Amino acid sequence: MLASAIFSLNPYLIQVSRHAWNPNTICFFTLLFALAFERYFRLKNNVYLVLAAFSLSWALNLHYTVIVFLPLLFLLFYLEARRHFLCKKLLFSAVIFLLFISPIILFEFRHNFSNTNGVLTLLGSQKEKDLFLSKFESMITDYFKMPLTLLAGVNQKENLTINPSHILLFDKTKILFDFKTFVTGAFLLVALCVTAANIRKKSLELNLILIFIVFGFLIRLIFPPGSFYFYHYTFFFPFVFLFVGYVLKKILDFNLIVGVMIAVLLMFLPVFDLKIKNEIRKEEYFLAACETIAKESSDKKVALAANLLDASRWDHNGLEYRYFLEAVFHLPLGGWEKSDYQTADVLYLIDEGDLEEPLRLGGMEMETFGAKKIEKVWQAKTGQKIYKMTR
User: Fold this and answer.
1) What is the DSSP letter of 279?
2) CB 231 within 8 A of CB 167
3) How does pLDDT run across 292-343, given as a tens digit for each residue?
4) Do residue 202 and residue 260 come from a single domain?
5) How far apart are CA 360 and CA 367, in angstroms?
6) Which residues form the domain of 130?
7) Residue 382 and residue 289 in contact, taking contact as beta carbons nearer than 8 Å
């Protein structure tokens, strides 16, 4: 219960629950997989094998980072095969798994294995002699850095944005010494001592939590340094809180008052001095700029790009404006793939900032379209500048 309370009050988890983005819902399914994993080991009931196959395959559809848990599912398959070779539940679990990852497989076939080629390119580019050592060092550092960031509320200004995702390069974040990091760091050291004292007792709960934490951190070895984002850890945030709950239980057994005080402190520590940027761009803000584009647009194939004020946004596809142009003004737009910008006749660039040279904005959208000329410029009543660009 205490772990659930700390989980539910955590600003990062509240932030991801407010936005519809694939990785933000992955926690439920990784927890469901962990429950099925634990139930199978405790009860030896192969019904939970089906649940494990379903939950992990669904999580894979939400984000590929959960691939590090695949060996745990295959372990369950292996153990069940040893108990009952080719039993109905084992075969049914395998079918369920393949069925729910079939969208990924079909997507790969339909798009010339774009994700597979991307992974192979990523792995192929990692040929430096000391790269593995660098990634291993980053992983070991993150055993302390990630829970400290999550529990203490470090870098909230950058992570708790109005975006649907918290795009923050984790290697570039710094842990500043303050009251919150001191208290959380002290708790993590206590947790380490509690773990060391209990790991020899062969506690199934502790061992399972540690297994998921160890496998979760392996995702660090897949990404090269400088390409790892904080949200890549979203899939196993819950296991950090399960570990916190286990440690609190041991502290409560030792001293009830101390345990409650630590639990309350951990609940409210990340919201101490919390400063969250409110959404200042209401519907009217987008509609004003979109109306201008809709009035100007002709039968030509239109592409869209945007220079957003939010510095944490790395994309230039104008997702918010795209929604209102399609939903309110029924303007048929191309997609946001590279091919869509290559075949477009006109590109509208919406500038929320103050670009001195709009043609040199950069990014996939601008570079792929290859704009050479600004045909026309407008300024919406809400302040954005709109550039009509052609080749």
Assistant:
1) P
2) yes
3) 888 877 767 888 888 887 665 666 778 788 888 888 887 767 677 788 888 8
4) yes
5) 9
6) 2-268
7) yes
